[in-house]
Design goal:
The chain is 36% helix and 20% strand. The strands form six sheets. Strands 1, 2, 3, 4, 5, 6, 14, 15, 16, 17, 18 and 19 form a twelve-stranded mixed beta sheet that branches. The protein is globular. It has three domains: 293 residues, Rossmann fold, CATH 3.40.50; 119 residues, 2-Layer Sandwich (Domain 2, N(10)-formyltetrahydrofolate synthetase); 83 residues, Formyltetrahydrofolate synthetase, domain 3, CATH 3.10.410.10. 51% of the residues are buried. The protein has 20 helices and 25 strands. A hairpin with a 4-residue loop joins β14 and β15. It has 554 residues and is α/β, with parallel strands linked by helices.
């Protein structure tokens, strides 16, 4: 089969103005960035039209290190619905440069199920990540400047919470010391970097609806505490306007297209293992205003991305999803069933049967949110008919809807079965969304409900630092905020080596991070790092420019 790069470049793209016109987007809302990508300068939403749109979430079972193919499935589903003559719009996250040059590669789909221009989307795109990085680090610089000139004063900053960010996987920046050598370099401090996708400003941008709310959320960002013990925010620093100015253009969704010309709004990119894992509310609502069907995805599996999509994003934006698509692969199921990683592509019905327990757990998680569920097998070339038939038979016995997705090999044509199943399920009214916890619950209760009801664990252990932060959260009156769990994506537990399917585990909460501007509390579990590292042989080794064209981004 041809490479993603070859496939993405063999078919001419439609002009972005044509894509916008086909989805009914007024020309005065379009700000082109060349011929094939654009910003959508939208400032008002038609809530009645949005409420009539069918929002479909694509999530997954516990992934392998190679992923599950949610983005490929999402794109294929959109193209499949387009083949059925449905008015459909995609709403996806932007890829991060960190994984693109690291272990995972690009995140614009694959095979014949891609969004294009693929290289642009995976690299600099319209500059949103760069704007967030610049805004974050400008704010950090202004805060340190204030510290320098107000050191020792009651209004000076004693405890710093904010960290700098960079859209690169760089483990050496996790913990650093700044302002060494002379006093003129500033106040010597222990600090660190997070990856841009895990920064509070990324979450702020993704959860704000318009520039005014963006400004308000930036105002509320908690940067630290003064010598007098008072909270210190961006508003206290007096630079909210400047940070908003840096994010003005980044606030608006980006419009691109699939290989088959389906409109795709790609905006925002928080990771789901260390952040809330969903594209922006601006992009999702824009898609729903112009599409009868909107396909979106949340990062990693249902215990991470989907949980945060429902409990944080949908709650905040008032969204009511029509259904959820649960993506599985034969190799991920076999890996969950105990097969060795180097043999997961080989037929093994015994391991596959054992691995169905993982699929069952994720179906149960989605049903706790009152979701109608379609199980989709993302088909690989090595999948046997016997294996596919086994998974389908298992789903039939469990009364779970099932479809095969072959979009990677066949594009929208290979996704028609999945698309028709989605249309059939969406014919019936959706039950109201049910949340895991109430906002009135205290922080400990929210976390325990997630651990017991979503992960299936027994208990939660709050370590000393987390206990101290709980006291600060109560003192600041922030217990009403939702919780964003930061933990490994490879397990229901906080240890990637233990599956947790037996429920005999506890979750260790090492720290709690207050992201007042974003509007949630981050619970850091186990050995979770908010700045990833690179593998021994990173994807960057295979990226190059040949004859003026970028190759190796896949």
């Amino acid at each position: 089969m041809k490479s993603d790069y070859e496939i993405a470049n063999e078919k001419p793209m439609r002009l972005i103005t044509e894509v916008a016109a086909d989805m009914g987007l007024p020309a005065d809302l379009l700000v082109p960035y060349g011929n094939y990508k654009a910003k959508v300068n939208i400032s008002q939403f038609d809530e009645e039209r949005i409420a009539a749109s069918k929002l479909v979430l694509v999530t997954a079972i516990t992934p392998t290190k190679a992923g599950i193919g949610k983005t490929t499935t999402s794109i294929g589903l959109a193209d499949g619905l387009k083949k059925l003559n449905k008015n459909v719009v995609l709403a996806l996250r932007e890829p991060s440069l960190g994984p693109c040059f690291g272990i995972k590669g690009g995140a614009a789909g694959g095979g014949y199920s891609q969004i294009v221009p693929m290289e642009d989307i995976n690299l600099h795109f319209t500059g949103d990540f760069h704007a967030i990085t610049a805004a974050n680090n400008t704010l950090a610089s202004l805060m340190d400047n204030f510290r320098f000139f107000n050191r020792g004063k009651p209004e000076g900053i004693k405890t710093v919470l904010m960290k700098r960010c960079l859209d690169v996987n760089d483990r050496v920046l996790r913990k650093i010391v700044t302002a060494l050598d002379t006093p003129n370099n500033g106040i010597t401090s222990e600090t660190g970097f997070v990856i841009t996708a895990a920064s509070e400003l990324m979450a702020v941008l993704c959860l704000a609806e318009g520039l005014e709310e963006l400004r308000k959320r930036i105002d509320e960002m908690l940067l630290g505490f003064t010598f007098a013990g008072e909270p210190f925010t961006t508003k206290n620093l007096g630079v909210t306007g400047a940070i908003t100015a840096l994010l003005k253009d980044a606030m608006f969704p980006n419009l691109v297209q699939t290989l088959e010309g389906c409109p795709a709004l790609v905006h925002g990119g928080p990771f789901a293992n260390i952040a809330h894992g969903c594209n922006s509310i601006m992009a999702t609502k824009t898609a729903m205003q112009f599409g009868d069907y909107v396909i979106t995805e949340a990062g990693f599996a249902s215990d991470l991305g989907a949980e945060k999509f429902f409990n944080i994003k949908c709650r905040k934006a008032g969204l009511q999803p029509a259904m959820s698509v649960l993506v599985a692969t034969s190799q991920a199921l076999k890996l969950s069933g105990g097969i060795a990683e180097d043999k997961m592509m080989l037929p093994d019905l015994t391991a596959l049967a054992k691995g169905m327990q993982n699929l069952e757990r994720h179906i149960a998680i989605l049903k706790t949110f009152n979701q109608k569920v379609l199980v989709v097998l993302n088909r690989y070339h090595f999948d046997t008919k016997e294996e596919i038939d086994f998974i389908q038979s298992w789903c039939n016995k469990k009364e779970a809807a099932f479809a095969v997705n072959d979009a990677y090999m066949q594009g929208g044509k290979g996704a028609r079965e999945m698309a028709q199943a989605v249309v059939d399920i969406c014919k019936d009214p959706s039950p109201p969304l049910r949340y895991t916890y109430e906002l009135s619950d205290d922080v400990e209760t929210k976390i325990r409900k997630i651990v017991t009801n979503i992960y299936g664990g027994k208990a939660v252990v709050f370590y000393k630092k987390a206990q101290e932060m709980i006291r600060k959260i109560k003192k600041l009156g922030l217990e009403h905020l939702p919780v964003c769990m930061a933990k490994t994506q490879y397990s229901f537990t906080d240890d990637a080596a233990i599956s947790g399917l037996d429920g005999d585990f506890k979750i260790d909460v090492d720290d709690l991070v207050i992201t007042q501007g974003a509007g949630f509390i981050v619970a850091v579990c186990g050995e979770m790092m908010r700045m990833p590292g690179l593998p021994k042989v990173p994807q960057a080794n295979f990226i190059d420019v040949v004859d003026g064209k970028i190759v190796g981004v896949s």
